[in-house]
Specification:
single chain; alpha+beta; 2 domains; 7 strands; two-stranded antiparallel ribbon; Heat Shock Protein 90
């Protein structure tokens, strides 16, 4: 792109093209150094210099001024603009011929110079962009390496924790089965078992998140009856929270999805546990499933406070926590919903947050591909 030229860059060469012949004329008139016919060559030198330095336009201006000054001051009759003989025509031809020839060469040189300057600027800008790109690539590599090391650390730590956690769970379970265990010790053992199960869940979540991020989730897809999977997950929830009412609306006759049974159960379990965690005690949780555009969409809604507006766009991100921890539907370390998203997407589906029902609360939905054996469309 050619740089902008301001008014001074245009007017200054024009001023020189007028002032230089005028100054030379003043000097020659004052000194009168010799044969006036030789003055033409001195003026031609000015025209040539300006033509080479600034181009055709300024050379033409200098030639015009020079011809008029020579004709007025040095060609007889002096102090008049008359074409008395062939000398005037010769001078005119010489001045403008020189201006045209040298000025054209100068203009071409200026154009080439501008192109070279433009190219130099473009190359400089390209070098700057390449340097920025190289720095960006270096930072990306560093971030990727840091993320890889983080995942390895989480995987190693989680793996190492599983063995002692299993021993603690086995020991506390065995201890609680003793009829002779004193009540005060039994209470402590039950608390220890509860916290051990919680820690074991967190370790499992860390391992699952590491596998999801590495793209190595092991899946065994099959045709799964969505109603059976939902009822099994609801039964597990109600064993943990017997006071929690859950209403289920599933298609009839049966509708099947293509999914891994265990991973589907994990998705349903996480969403149901999060709803149970966020909703007021004894308020109902509603689970629905229906066929939509070749997929089966499952919705789990509750009557809790809902997801805060500031967290709606990031609720499926890792470790999303906030002051409203009880209201953003991701108990624990903030890995439940990211794991849900990772497992659903790994099975060819998607997950999203919908607006709550008329009574408020939150509604999480996910879709999975419908099996070819699925037949009827759930009620509308």
């Amino acid at each position: 792109m050619r740089p902008h030229v301001d008014g001074r860059g245009v007017l200054f060469p024009l001023g020189v093209a007028v002032a230089a012949p005028a100054a030379l004329t003043g000097l020659l008139v004052a000194l009168n150094p010799g044969n006036t016919r030789d003055y033409v060559f001195v003026y031609l030198g000015i025209v040539a210099i300006l033509g080479l330095a600034t181009g055709l336009r300024d050379a033409i201006v200098a030639a015009t001024c020079s011809f008029l000054l020579v004709d007025f001051f040095f060609v007889r009759p002096v102090h008049t603009f008359q074409f008395a003989d062939s000398t005037d025509l010769v001078n005119l031809a010489v001045f403008f011929g020189t201006a045209g020839l040298v000025g054209s060469l100068g203009s071409r040189r200026r154009v080439a110079q501008r192109r070279a300057e433009d190219l130099a600027r473009e190359l400089q800008q390209a070098n700057i962009e390449l340097a920025r790109l190289a720095e960006t690539e270096r930072q990306v590599r560093e971030l990727e390496e840091t993320d890889r090391l983080r995942r390895e650390l989480l995987a190693n730590v989680s793996h190492e924790l599983r063995t002692p956690m299993a021993s603690i769970l086995t020991g506390t379970t065995t201890l609680l089965q003793r009829p002779s265990l004193p009540d005060d010790i039994r209470g402590d053992a039950e608390s220890l078992a509860t916290e051990s199960r919680r820690l074991n869940r967190l370790v499992s979540d860390l391992l699952d998140m590491t596998r999801i991020e590495a793209g190595i989730v092991e899946l065994h897809p099959a045709d799964v009856d969505i109603a059976e999977a939902i009822r099994a997950s609801v039964d597990r929830l109600q064993r943990q929270s017997p006071d929690r009412p859950v209403t289920v609306e599933v298609p009839s006759p049966a509708v099947e999805v293509v999914a891994d049974w265990n991973r589907l159960a994990q998705v349903l379990g996480n969403l149901l546990e999060n709803a149970d965690h966020a909703a007021p005690r004894r308020s109902p949780i509603r689970v629905t499933a229906r066929r939509e555009n070749g997929t089966i969409v499952v919705r789990i809604s509750d009557m809790g406070p809902g997801v805060p507006a500031r967290l709606r766009d990031q609720v499926f991100e890792r470790f999303t926590r906030g002051a409203e921890a009880d209201s953003h539907h991701d108990a624990g370390m903030g890995l439940g919903l990211p794991i849900v998203r990772g497992l659903v997407e790994a099975q060819g589906g998607r997950v999203w947050l919908e607006d709550g029902a008329l009574t408020g609360g939150a509604c999480f939905a996910f879709s999975l591909p419908a099996a070819e054996t699925g037949t009827t469309e759930a009620g509308s």
